[in-house]
Amino acid sequence: MAVKVKINGEVREIDAPEDMPLLWALRQELGMVGTKFGCGKALCGACTVHVDGVATRSCSTPIGSIGESEVTTVEALGQTDLGRALQEAWLEEDVMQCGYCQAGQLMSATALLLRNPEPSARQIDAAMSGNICRCACYTRIKSAITQVAESGVAKKGKANA
Amino acid sequence: MPEAIALSRRTLLKASVLSGGGLALSAAIPMVARAAAVTGEAQGTLNAFVTIAADNTITIVGKNPEIGQGIKTMLPMLIADEMDADWDQVKIVQGDTDAAKYGPQLAGGSFATPMNWMPMRQVGAGARQMLLAAASRRWGIDSAKLTTKLGKVIDPASGRSLTYGELANDAAGVAVPDLAKVPLKNPKDFHIIGRAIGGIDSPKIVRGEPIFGVDTQLPGMVYAAFERSPVFGAKLVSANLDVVKAQPGVIDAFIVKGNGNAEELVDGVAVIARNWWIADQARQKLEIKWDNGQWASHSSKGYDAAARKLMADAKPQETLASHGDVDAAFASAAKVLDAEYSYPFLAHVPMEPMNCTALCHADGSMEMWAPSQTPQGGQTGVAKMLGLTPDKVKVHITRMGGGFGRRLTNDYMHQVAAIAKQMPGKPVQMIFSREDDVRGDFYRPAGWHRLRAALDDKGKLIGYDDHFITFEIPGPGAYNPAAMSKDEFPAKFVPNLRYAQTKMQTAVPMGALRAPTSNAMAFVMQSFLDEVAQAAGKDLPTLLLEIVDGAEKEPDSMGFMGPSPGFNPARLRAVTRKALEMSGWGKTMPAGHALGFGYYFSHMGYFAEVVEASLEGGRINVHNVWAAGDVGSQIINPHGALNQVQGSIIDGIGQALALAIEIEGGAVKQSNFHDYPIPRMPVTPKIEVEFVKSDNSPTGLGEPALPPVIPALTNALFALTGKRIRSLPIDVKQLA
Fold this sequence. Notes:
The structure holds two protein chains of two kinds. Chain A is 40% helix and 13% strand. By secondary structure, chain A is of the alpha+beta class. In chain A, strands 2-1-5-3-4 form a five-stranded mixed sheet, with helices on both faces. In chain A, a hairpin with a 2-residue loop joins strand 3 (48-51) and strand 4. In chain A, helix 2 packs across helix 3 and helix 2 (81-92) crosses helix 5. The longest helix of chain A is centred in the last third of the chain and has 14 residues, at 102-115. The mean pLDDT of chain A is 96. Chain B is of the alpha+beta class. Chain B folds into three domains: 2-206, 2-Layer Sandwich (Aldehyde Oxidoreductase, domain 4); 213-293 and 354-431, 2-Layer Sandwich (Aldehyde Oxidoreductase, domain 4); 300-347 and 442-735, 2-Layer Sandwich (Aldehyde Oxidoreductase, domain 4), CATH 3.30.365.10. In chain B, strand 24 (593-602) and strand 25 (605-616) form a beta hairpin. The longest helix of chain B has 28 residues, at 112-139. The interface between A and B is large, with 59 and 66 residues.
């Protein structure tokens, strides 16, 4: 029996068991491989997506548990001003080394700025501490987030929402 | 048929001895000329690396595997600069594995920069010569009178110009010049080298586009989970395949027999499904009977007890270095220091778990999509295992989500090839779970050192003695990736010195971890030298400068990958002084804060680092790190260079603070990031980096910044508490 999940604004039918984690449905049932497998236990954040705008570890989220909620993945990140601003800041800062964790980092950063457009350094640390970057590009990740927060894009988005 | 003639041409590059008498690496790059520069085609292939399209797009092949070290951007920068290309018109493509076409393709040892600095520039300069020759023919002017700039050949006399795109087809028909003789730019004329350039794949990465090995998708592809014995060295006796095959969604399950070499293929069971998660779920139902042999009794605790006994009582098995009369020096010493140091096994845990995709074609040949740091080694290894010639194993190089040395070992390539061979015509992607990765790694070996130092009545270091306890794996293919060099600093600078070692047997697989040997040796030696310095009433940098006082540069020697520049005390002095200056060494620190110093020379790079640390409620805080590094005359891409140094420093701090792999019952106890806690954002200190330029050919940055940060941290903790950390990871309780 197919499971219906709304992903990036589109209802997708997934012919897989309800307990299949969203990560594996995205990657191997739908061919959306932007969301990454890192640990399978919600420990590293590489698989972070948004469920109703909240950063969620897709490796530990069964597709049957999502219901009517809306899933956003990195593939749709550039569709909002905030997402695009973060992508641009990531390139501007040349954040990444291997880049594997960066989809998850970007999704966590977006979720942070959605709920808190002006985070303090400590709040950035706290919100991002669930995302491991094995190359340790933390200095630049933090700097890119700070840059976007200071630009006011997130604040503007919140006012419009 | 000029093309046919061109195709047969092989021009070998040999990097000549460089200015400054520094480095003379030679990497032979076979310059297979144009693939098919057919007349009338809208592009010209000038050599194995450079193709120019009529619209002026210059496609440059990045030959080396990209693991995050920035090489896919950096090597083409060398070519593009010497070509006088416009970087905005450059497109980079990843080359497949092809030793004949591209020469060595390797991501490891910080070798890519020293090996390719000259050859890649020569490739670019050669292409420029061909474009000049084409313009010279077109205009009927001596090419010596022409010049180039940003993708154009210019005739300064008339002011007219032709774009590289307009010349590409003609240039493809020009004879490839002798690359050893092509003129190279004066470094002051570099317009791309030295520019901070963003990673070439980064725009794709922020959009989530498929680019990593595990993103490989092929029609009809199936996924494999591979269950191996948790106990290293075990052999498979039997497995309940029928139960697993009956699980919903499982396509097949079968036993794969190992070949006796853990670096290639160990016994296991492959479970195949259309989705990896389904295969992994079914795998949980496996019941396998293993024959653990002698290894199930092995443990880290057992190794530690045995090593301590060896250090206390036993004579070393073998002597590595012996200078002067060590026993006499200790007999005459005014002061003797005696200490035991140790460090644990470590795992690599790159973010992208090990994976590989393979397709066995109808003729038995294998096609692979391999995230490997040594794809050429993987190709020959898989070919040998399957009884094929290497040309029957085609290996596409994918971007990798980190390497750190894990992907120097191609066990996963062998495993998936063995699985795919049983399913001809079906692409198979094998993926490790994180638990498979943590428990199925090739670990930085644990090690123990009993160190003794003899000081005379003036506090001068007159004797030095190390008994190193390390491991060996019985059987084929095994090597020690953390072997101690007879020249380990301060070997050549203390008059009476002995290095000796004893090996214990293990089945725990060993591999090179970022800055192999050095990542452990720097901690041991720079900590113990700090002890020596304290005992002599001075600080470590002062002691180091005294130890090398008056010493001359050592001659170059043959290293693992070619000639290697000899140790140069002047470079030690320069980075040491710079780090002291940057950190304000000797200044009054805020209450509860202290500075520590560490220096190390590895992978041809010299780094001196100062750490500022404090202790707060049983937690170690690292506030600042100042790093001064000398990796030669030129930082090729400052963006990437800084990222490597910052990452290396946090990596080292993370190891020192928290990381250990423990063996229990012959298997690894840790399993995932909860008990192997890689550093996270809050750990990040403020890091200041300065490069000290020297008259030496540029060398790599993947590794040399890591080793010294560990002793810099432990030495800071000594300065703070008076307690000496002699075992990693740091046990904060010992500082109370």
